[in-house]
Amino acid sequence: MTVHTVTADAETFTCNAYLVTGDVTALVDAGAYDGVVDAVREHVDDVDVVYLTHQHGDHVAQLDAVVDAFDPDVYAYAEHEHRTHALEDGDTVAIGDEDFDVVYTPGHASDHVSFVSETTLYSGDVVVHDDGAFDYGSFGRTDYAGQSRERLIESIRHLLDRFPETVEHMYAGHGSEFHGDVRDVVETALARAEKREPKYPDEA
């Protein structure tokens, strides 16, 4: 199983969109990078399935283009015109060569899910390794309408409860990928979120 960050060359704001090859060729989030379809085609001719962690614009802006190009199945928690399968907490999905547990992780977004296997976490925006606020353990912002720090904290705890000790690869919606003690990164993010201090200085 190989993971390619197909939004790596983007010069505009986008999430990280991950192309995962293997038994099931999957795209985790579609991103907002105009060149994402061409970037995918540098590695594969087709995409079997797209999994959406949530439907903020930076994660789904290029979904129309991806669907037009590859006609994949589309899995999402919330309704979307391109959704072919609904995701629920506790579902199992195939990404690359592994089966992943679907974990419902709202707070940053009401429809947010994460995907965790025996080795790998796709965390979307609920937890990231590094961003403009923190390195080694940060979390999605919760200062916009419809977001909730309390719900995010519950979601990170829920994620840890479902977390195999063997997870050593983390691919988040923003920042860099991480390889090592992923549980420690997530626990660090939880501790910071639990302080309930503003993530960014300009948060109201």
Characterize the main sheet. Answer: 6 strands, mixed
* Overall mean pLDDT: 96
CATH class: Alpha Beta
Order of helices and strands: EEEHEHHEEEEEEEEHEEH
End-to-end distance: 43 Å
Structurally, the number of domains stands at: 1
The percent of residues in helical segments reads 10-25%
Beta-strand percentage range: 15-25%
What's the structural blueprint in terms of helices and strands?
Elements: E1 2-5, E2 18-21, E3 26-28, H1 36-41, E4 49-51, H2 57-60, H3 63-70, E5 73-76, E6 85-86, E7 92-95, E8 98-104, E9 113-116, E10 120-124, E11 127-128, E12 138-139, H4 149-161, E13 169-172, E14 178-179, H5 182-194
Parallel strand pairs: 3-4, 4-5, 5-6, 10-13
Antiparallel strand pairs: 1-2, 2-3, 7-8, 8-9, 9-10, 11-12, 13-14
Helix pairs in contact: 4-5
Which key terms come to mind for this protein?
six-stranded mixed β-sheet, 204 residues, alpha/beta, 14 strands, MBL fold metallo-hydrolase, globular, Metallo-beta-lactamase, Chain A, EC 3.-.-.-, RibonucZ/Hydroxyglut_hydro, single chain
